[in-house]
Amino acid sequence: TATQTVDAAPTPLSVLSDVFGYDEFRGEQAAIIDQVMSGGEAVVLMPTGGGKSLCYQIPSILREGTGIVVSPLIALMSDQVAALEAVGIRAAFLNSSLDFQEAQAVEQQLLAGEIDLLYMAPERLILPRTLDLLRRAQIALFAIDEAHCVAQWGHDFRPDYLGLSVLADAFPNVPRIALTATATRSTHREITERLRMENAAHFVSNFDRPNIQYRIEPKDRGRDQLLKFISTEHDGDAGIVYCLSRKSVETTAEWLEKHGVAALPYHAGLDAAVRHENQERFLREEGIVIVATIAFGMGIDKPDVRFVAHLDLPKSIEGYYQETGRAGRDGLPSTAWMAYGLGDVVNQRRLIDRGEGSELHMRNARSHLDTMLALCETVSCRRVQLLRYFGQESEPCGNCDTCLKPPKMWDATVPAQKLLSTLIRLHRERSQQFGSGKIFDVLLGRENERSVESRHHELSVWGIGTELTEREWRSVLRQLLARGIVEAVGDYGVLVPGPNAGPVLRGEVTLDLAVDRAPTSPARGRPR
Ligand code: ADP
Ligand code: ZN
Fold first, then answer.
1. Does the predicted model carry a pTM greater than 0.80?
2. What positions does the domain Helicase ATP-binding occupy (predicted)?
3. Which of 46, 214, 444, 489 might form a disulfide with 205, Cβ 3.0–4.6 angstroms?
4. Which atom of ligand 1 is nearest to the CA of 26?
5. Which atom of ligand 1 is nearest to the CA of 25?
6. CA-CA distance, 413 to 468, in Å (whole number)?
């Protein structure tokens, strides 16, 4: 119509509405886009689902030349490109899935200025051949996605990301924008230093996801607990269930299916066509529960995921936060639920100790696990602890299990001393290696083949722990592990007194532990 200013130059806001169909920018998007539009550099820390993509897509469309998007997720590139093409943006990718001719065609389009956004992996970008190509093209900006991959102490380090520092010298006049959903202080510092972005403006979003209710409960019969959680609170809802192994992905999916939940498996070992179909069904149909390894989810954009459940302990808080962040992107009440138990702690320790990699790498993995455990065992607000991990102070949230139902505490000093004494006796007098089963046998004075054979009943600690049930002992041991009072070491996860055992053994401290909450007591929070 006559009133429309058809010829006015497009602005970030007009692109937002005309191309992407949204009315307004969210959070810091507008400020970030302004910074990049004016040729400045930006380091962007924004939680999963916060809307990072538009921060480089819009400047790539508006600025002269092509925006180069560096991403480690080769498998997702074709989907990302297809999504952009669907809204009329000229996008392409360069990766090993293209044959020679296809790659050549993309390169020609790039040189001809016919592409707005070009995706590639870092190892491709830093090839001398690629850098030459880019020098001959007009580049609007470099967007370095998943920038935490440059952090050597992070949970997702990729050596190729270090090579991206060459961009600072090779293209001094092209603005760079680095983006990540990981916002620990050390990762932030490493991104700035290693990518040589000392002149960048920093945009740190609020990491809180107030609509997500965090709940972590002791695992007893994990799958039963999961089923109860889904059927009582999320019947018919879309959700993601994370498991550690491919095997447990498959058995859990089958089992849920058998119990009336529309569940589909997803892991890297499945046939590509099956994987694709399951992902598509999850995205398109309503109320599908996808059971997956952590291979699932990066780049998946489904706004109405109502719950994310963990049946196994994540390896780090970053991982946990990223995975749970896939719930409730639409802002409606959602649940992050997890069951974890003694076995998880011992297994993960064992995996780390068995793993390849340097001493430093192992120490790093252990410290990631320890902070994850501390979150699981905390008796105060989980959100406060999560956000503090990301450098953000906050007040108790009222929408996590510990806020809604503060755990009861009990004085466990004497039981802890008994357990530690038992570990010490077993090592001293039997010099054998023990897992938790044998320790409970001794504490409870349980005669069976393994205890009789090892003459455990002759030990002075035999049967000193009959005041607690095995389940209670498991809870004690799990909490002692999480606090470093007991440690699981070596290939077999042998239990030994940990670095914090001394004061407990000597009676210098009172040790208060939490009474395990009843499994899946639904904690109904008010959406905030
Ligand atoms: P991130 O990469 O930070 O995880 P995305 O860029 O994938 O997040 O965006 C998450 C979702 O939010 C997408 O569906 C996206 O289209 C949507 N989105 C982003 N910005 C806006 C906005 N300003 N208004 C409405 N929706 C938006
Ligand atoms: Zn809370």
1. no
2. 33-201
3. 46
4. 23
5. 23
6. 13
Ligand 1 atom nearest residue 29's Cα? 23
Q: Which ligand is nearest to the CA of 49?
A: 1
Gap from CA of 6 to ligand 1 centroid (Å): 27
Q: DSSP letters along 438-496, please?
A: HHHHHHHT---HHHHHTTGGGSTTTTTTTTS-HHHHHHHHHHHHHTTSEEEETTTTEEE
The predicted model gives 361-387 an average pLDDT of: 90
By CB neighbour count within 10 A (0-12 exposed, 13-18 middle, 19+ buried), where does 271 fall? Answer: exposed
Residue nearest to atom 27 of ligand 1 (CA): 51
Q: Is the model more confident about 435 or about 410?
A: 410
Nearest-atom number in ligand 1 for the CA of 54 is 6
CB 58 within 8 A of CB 33: yes
Backbone angles phi, psi at 45, to 5 degrees: -110, 110
CA 327 to centroid of ligand 1, rounded, Å: 14
| Residue 345, pLDDT above cutoff 90 | no
Highest mean pLDDT among 68-77, 191-200, 444-453, 482-491: 191-200
Q: For residue 389, what pLDDT is reported? A: 86
Q: Is the pLDDT of residue 525 over 80?
A: no
Distance 356 CA to ligand 2 centre (A): 37
pLDDT tens-digit series, residues 67-105? 999 999 888 898 889 999 999 999 999 998 899 999 999
Check if the beta carbon of residue 256 is closer than 8 Å to that of residue 227.
yes
User: How remote is the CA of residue 3 from the centroid of ligand 2, in Å?
Assistant: 51
> Which residues line the pocket of ligand 1, CB cutoff 6 A?
22, 25-26, 29, 46, 48-54, 301, 329
The bound ligand whose nearest atom lies closest to the alpha carbon of 22 is 1
ipTM of the complex: 0.98
Bigger pLDDT: 450 vs 285: 285
CB-based contacts of 425, cutoff 8 Å, min separation 6: 459, 460, 461
Start-to-end CA distance of the chain, whole Å, equals 43
Give how far the C-alpha of residue 346 lies from the chain's centroid of Cα atoms, to the nearest Å: 20
Pocket test for ligand 1, best of 13, 14, 22 (most atoms within 8 A of CB): 22
| Total Cβ atoms within 10 A of residue 236 | 12
Taking 80 as the threshold, does the pLDDT of residue 412 lie above it?
Answer: yes
